[in-house]
Write a structure and sequence with these properties.
By secondary structure, the chain is of the alpha+beta class. It has helices at residues 8-11, 32-45, 67-74, 78-82, 90-94, 122-130, 139-146, 148-157, 170-175, 177-187, 214-222, 276-280, 296-312, 354-362, 366-385, and strands at residues 19-26, 51-58, 64-65, 108-111, 133-134, 165-169, 192-196, 206-208, 227-232, 247-255, 260-268, 287-289, 317-325, 338-344. The chain has a five-stranded mixed beta sheet with strand order 3-2-1-4-5, with helices on both faces.
């Protein structure tokens, strides 16, 4: 697939000015370590001739750290590889409590934070108040993209195909588990997937095959969020109806008002579904297949659905969109159904993460991808600056 050229504002940054870019990583969420990996990869790959880079780390306690401590938090071999980082305007790197912590003097912030307190609109709101350009979706897109219940409602309004699901509150489950169980079983068939509505990296997700497994899964999900989403599992079509594992397909989206989609990739998990261990455990044998072995028609369908999903949630900058495809019996001519699963507005961003790998296979390398995202952040910030917020 040829990559459509982006307009100048989206694809090029004038070199008359060396931009000062803050790379924000860490955070209080359960995806802290994943964020560190993403931040380290960006810091190593970003073009230092074009950008004056400031590492901005947030400890698990929520404390914002100065540049040197932020680099040290990455640990391992990253600190020596990064070498000296910018020390200009040190006050801007450390004055976290003043105005949007540490953003003074920055042209752009790349908030490569995953999960709660980073991908859910909270950081984005702070950066909006500070009037600084930042990579990724705004407050609405980030919060909707984080909340699986709200996300599905947006998908449904846009007419996009989603799996059957039920949303329950933690309070409802604690007060009357029998009633909640009946609600789930009246509307859905086993197996079901029980998920906390607001969390990423498959944390707190359980596959439930029968009623005996439901309570434990509900308690697990409820420990992570007040809203619990229960989804009916996708199986197969034809003779595989009710059997077989769905194919897990992923695609990357890049842009603002006129986004483009990458080639389609597939994740082949080493267990029943692509859970946290399957994603990050060192023993995992899960593997990505890029491009996915699907038909051209299926690829075009998924690309169109991904862009529609991106727009329906008012996303910008970047997102990875995940799909489930029914299993098909070998040799069958029956067309499998494709369901939109979810959108991830700040996906893992290491050089070997699925989002960058999908763009690499499409023709955009890792460093160029960083350039484009920074340009898109500036474009969106300039667009917002054209908006009048008062009559005076």
């Amino acid at each position: 697939m040829a990559v459509r050229a982006l307009p100048r504002a989206q694809g090029e940054i004038p070199l008359a000015k060396k931009l000062r870019v803050g790379v924000l990583f860490g955070g209080k969420s359960g995806e802290h370590e994943v964020s560190l990996r993403s931040g380290a990869s960006i810091l190593l790959a970003i073009d230092k001739s074009r950008y004056d880079v400031v590492p901005m780390g947030i400890a698990k306690t929520g404390q914002w750290l100065p540049a040197e401590a932020s680099t040290a938090m990455l640990g391992g071999d990253f600190a020596p590889k990064l070498g000296k980082t910018s020390t200009k305007k040190k006050a801007a790197d450390t004055s976290i409590a003043s105005q949007a912590p540490g953003t003074a003097g920055l042209d752009v912030v790349f908030p490569v934070l995953h999960g709660t307190f980073g991908e859910d609109g909270t950081i984005q709101g702070m950066l909006e108040l500070a009037d600084v350009a930042y990579v990724g979706s705004g407050v609405l897109g980030s919060s909707v993209g984080m909340d699986k219940d709200a996300m599905k409602k947006m998908f449904a309004v846009a007419g996009l195909p989603i799996v059957k699901h039920v949303t329950l509150l933690r309070g409802e489950w604690k007060a009357n588990p029998k009633k909640c169980t009946k609600t789930i079983e009246d509307k859905l068939k086993y197996p079901v997937f029980v998920k906390p509505a607001n969390l990423g990296s498959s944390v707190g997700i359980s596959k439930v095959r029968e009623r005996a497994e439901l309570a434990r899964a509900m308690d697990e999900a409820a420990s992570f969020d007040r809203k619990i989403v229960i989804e009916e599992g996708v199986s197969g079509t034809g003779k595989l109806k009710g059997k077989g594992k769905p194919r897990e397909l992923e695609i990357a989206v890049l842009g603002n008002d006129d986004p483009i989609a990458s080639v389609v990739g597939e994740i082949v998990p080493d267990r029943e579904f692509y859970d946290y261990a399957s994603k990050y455990d060192s023993t995992s044998t899960s593997e990505p297949v890029i491009p996915a072995k699907i038909t051209k028609a299926q690829s075009k369908q998924i690309q169109a659905m991904a862009i529609a999903a991106f727009k329906s949630c008012d996303c910008s900058g970047l997102a990875r969109v995940d799909f489930l495809m029914e299993a098909v019996e070998p040799g069958s001519k029956k067309e499998p159904k494709i369901f939109l699963n979810e959108i991830n507005t700040m996906p893992g961003f290491t050089s070997i993460s699925m989002y960058p790998k999908l763009w690499e296979a499409t023709g955009i390398g890792y460093s160029e991808l960083i350039d484009r995202l920074i340009a898109l952040a500036i474009e969106r910030h300039d667009e917002r600056a054209a908006t009048t917020f008062s009559k005076s």
